Amino acid sequence: MTILIVEDNATNAMILKHLAKKVTDEDIVVEADATKALSLCHNTLFNMLIVDHMLPGMSGLQFIKAIRMMSRYDAIPVVMVTADQEPKLRESAQGVGVTDFLTKPVEAVAFRALLSSCLGCPSFPSALAG
């Protein structure tokens, strides 16, 4: 089981990966380039995708739309991480298949709770201790 984080900012990617490791022992792959991440998704079935909205080359919305065209990603949770709080973005994102949102800066407890929920982890309260 593997999680893919698509985030072009190295610091944000490191923070997301660190927070995810507090909830799960799954492998976590980080890719800064959305086009490369799309290729990874063709070759690997990830259990969850965490996608930044503002990416070089293609937007997070374009990436998610492409992912949802792959039938094996129909039921995979996709969380969009963005600083943009525009309601139209949320509507558009839900229209292409985003499961949930996190607003930057990411709040640690909310991120871990969302990740735990998406992955079906029963032990989230113990993850709060870390």
Automatic annotation (TrEMBL):
The keyword Nucleotidyltransferase does not apply. Keywords: Phosphoprotein, Transcription, Transcription regulation. PROSITE patterns: RESPONSE_REGULATORY (PS50110). Residues 2-119 form the Response regulatory domain. It comes from the Bacteria. One of its GO terms (biological process) is phosphorelay signal transduction system. The keyword Phosphoprotein applies. InterPro entries: Bact_response_regulator (IPR050595), CheY-like_superfamily (IPR011006), Sig_transdc_resp-reg_receiver (IPR001789). The modification 4-aspartylphosphate is found at D52. SUPFAM superfamilies: CheY-like (SSF52172). This is Response regulator.
